[in-house]
Amino acid sequence: MKRLTDNISSRYFEASDRLRGDKRRLVRVFVEGYDDVSFWRVVFDRYTNDKIRFEISVPARGDLAKGKKAVMKLLPESGPNLLLCVDSDFDYLFGDLNEQSRLVNRSKYLFHTYAYAVENYHCHPPSLHGLCVKATKIDRPIFDFGLFMKEYSKTVYPVFLWYAFSASLKMERAFTLVDFRNTVRINFLDSEENGRRTIEWLGRQVDRRLKTLEEHHAGLIPALKKFEERLVARGLTRENVHCFMQGHTLKDNVVLVLLETICDRLQSIGISTINTSDRRGVALKNELSNYNNSLREVKNLLDDNDNYETCELYLRLRDDIRRYVDRVCN
User: Are 231 and 252 found together in one domain?
Assistant: First the structure.
């Protein structure tokens, strides 16, 4: 016997919509997992109006399967009343390189992040200073996150190409995600000179890994060069690798290291300012207590960061959804 969920499709929701008698079209939007709901809610809120509204959820499945594969399986059932939203992973950069990337890039009712994942938007460099201010209540620009991330991207660019190329050939064993993560992570931030010594250290790590890859896979280098041309044509540059690398690697092994280091420095500035003020005794103790109680965990702020509306890739995503709304509402 079939379950009701086995019949879910755009037509099913369209019929359900008519039965409700609501003048506004109700569009269901299926996403990969619960962590993605809030991101896509922010995206679609911009397009909710007196003609259309959206309901974001994870597909209801008896086998509890979640993730991109589960959403992609619903592609034949998608339509004006059932939208699918996924992380791009490498599919945007790969273009028509394989069947999945073709589907992600060409499907009419599937939207993707363009950036590797939602986490890459959370780590949008121009927004990171604001997170530090929220966490420490100190608004002092002691570090240029945007400049550092450009230097970081330029430094890891060569090994990013190797990892993406390996993934495209289904030969991840040649350069695994673990190897890539260990190569591009930063174990510390020396914030003097905007992290120059950290970037130099990272460059040495990358050079060692690059030498090994080129020695072991010399025969692949010509194909790698052609692959690079494909990715550059899709929008990859030496300065925006952080948009296209694996999201959790960027967030956990790079951006959080930056944020925690800078927040520690800003917090020290805040405490020092209070200690050198005219307050003494109980008044000083209370002021320090009030300041410490106002501090927030920057990791939690990063998880909820939605200040990425200036990101070029995000603007492309918004334009895709705007064209869909114009099409179904007019």
Answer: yes
User: Tokens standing for 243?
Assistant: 């948009």
Is residue 316, in this structure, part of any structural domain at all? no
Distance CA 67, CA 88 (A): 12
**The dihedral sign for the CA sequence 7, 8, 10, 14:** positive
**In this structure, what are the phi and psi dihedrals at residue 189, rounded to the nearest 5 degrees?**
-125, 115
In a domain, 61, yes or no: yes
Tokens standing for 130?
A: 């604001």
Are residue 103 and residue 207 in the same domain, yes or no? Answer: no
Dihedral over Cα of 14, 20, 26, 31: its sign: negative
Same-domain check for residues 16 and 135: no
**CA atoms of 104 and 86, how far apart (whole Å):** 9
Assign residue 68 a region (left: φ > 0; alpha: ψ between -120 and 50; beta: otherwise). Answer: alpha
Compute the distance between CA of residue 61 and CA of residue 72 in angstroms, rounded to an integer: 13
What domain range includes position 69?
A: 4-115+321-329
pLDDT tens profile 94-133:
999 999 999 999 999 999 999 999 999 999 999 999 999 9
- Please check whether residue 140 lies inside any domain of the structure: yes
Q: What's the pTM? A: 0.92
* The total number of structural domains that make up the chain: 2
| Chain center to CA of 2 | 37
pLDDT digits (tens, 9 = 90+) for 5-50: 456 665 555 556 655 656 789 999 999 999 999 999 999 999 999 9
**How many CB atoms are closer than 10 A to CB 12?**
17
DSSP 8-class letter at 95: T
Neighbouring CB atoms inside 10 A of 216's CB total 11
- Asked whether residue 95 falls in the same domain as residue 174, the answer is no
Identify the burial level of 104 via C-beta atoms within 10 angstroms of its C-beta, where 0-12 means exposed, 13-18 middle and 19 or more buried.
buried
Give the CA angle between residues 165, 168, 172 to the nearest 5°.
75
